[in-house]
Amino acid sequence: MDLAIKQLHPLFVAELRGIDLGRDIGPATQQAVEHAMNEYAVCVLPEQALDDERQIAFSRLYGPLENASAVKSQRKAGVIGQRIRHPEIFDVSNLDENGKIMSGDDARWIYRQANELWHSDSSFRQKSSTWSLLHARIVPPVGGDTYFADTRAAYDALPEAMKKRLQNLVAEHSIWHSRSLRGGYTPTDEERAARPPARHPLVRRHPGSGRNALFIASHASHIVGWPVDEGRALLGELMAFATDRRFVYVHNWRVGDLVIWDNRCTLHRASPFPSSEHMREMHRTTIIDTQGDVPAAA
Ligand SMILES: [Fe+2]
């Protein structure tokens, strides 16, 4: 392995070259990726020729994978099934089951547009996720970038009084909260029951680096034990702080990019693109955080 690491932002994000995920990788490469992720939190691996099976196999090296429950329920309803065969693949695209551009009022597209809000994948699950791995298959000529924010750096930059205020606070996260913020998608009773809210500390320690990180964003609906308005005001203040330009990297996708991010210490959001004219197809795998919430370092 001839690994070249280039940092892409002053605080986080690295490009890794010299790894070919189209072949089996050995333990040295596996560890090198893990070390880079612990340090940089977002890693870009360009020019990866991956099919779904390869992406799943590589992702599994780092833990068990989430199943895309929305896809599963849609498959049950007979809506989807031809284009993506593996439940481990999250379809991050504007394409229907036949590979055609969805209409703007398609419920699946409306549901996915909440991805344009800052979030951490699966924070609404009690067992949330460590990493997400997103592989670019088709990219639009304009827009469709992904913004990433570094919540370790944001935590470090908070005033000491705010760090004290956050100690021992817990937020409740719900997928239906972020969907209600974006509007337009009404879950069925079955969907609501299948995805109840989860609770996580506002500050957690990132195990791979030992650094504290804010754990917030659009799924976080309120602070447990606080009046809802007061909790939302604090969450809003933290979000504005954490997504300040100085903490943000914008990734402009190229076909073949595999971008891995750590959901425990970054936030991300998609930027809009002319979705009725151009295709955007990305396949995501998501690793389950079996360790659970790690208490913040004092
Ligand atoms: Fe996401």
Keywords:
single chain, 298 residues, alpha+beta, Double-stranded beta-helix, seven-stranded mixed sheet, three-stranded antiparallel sheet, globular, binds fe (ii) ion
Explain what this protein looks like in three dimensions:
The longest helix is centred in the C-terminal third of the chain and has 15 residues, at 228-242. This protein is of the alpha+beta class and 298 residues long. The strands form four sheets. It has a seven-stranded mixed sheet, covered by helices on one side. The chain has a three-stranded antiparallel sheet with strand order 12-6-14. Strands 8-7-11 form a three-stranded antiparallel sheet. It has one domain: 4-Layer Sandwich (Double-stranded beta-helix). The model has no long low-confidence stretch (mean pLDDT 92). The protein is built from nine helices and 15 strands. Helix content is 27%, strand content 24%. The protein starts with a strand and ends in a 10-residue tail after the last strand. β1 and β2 form a beta hairpin. The site of fe (ii) ion has 4 residues, from loops.
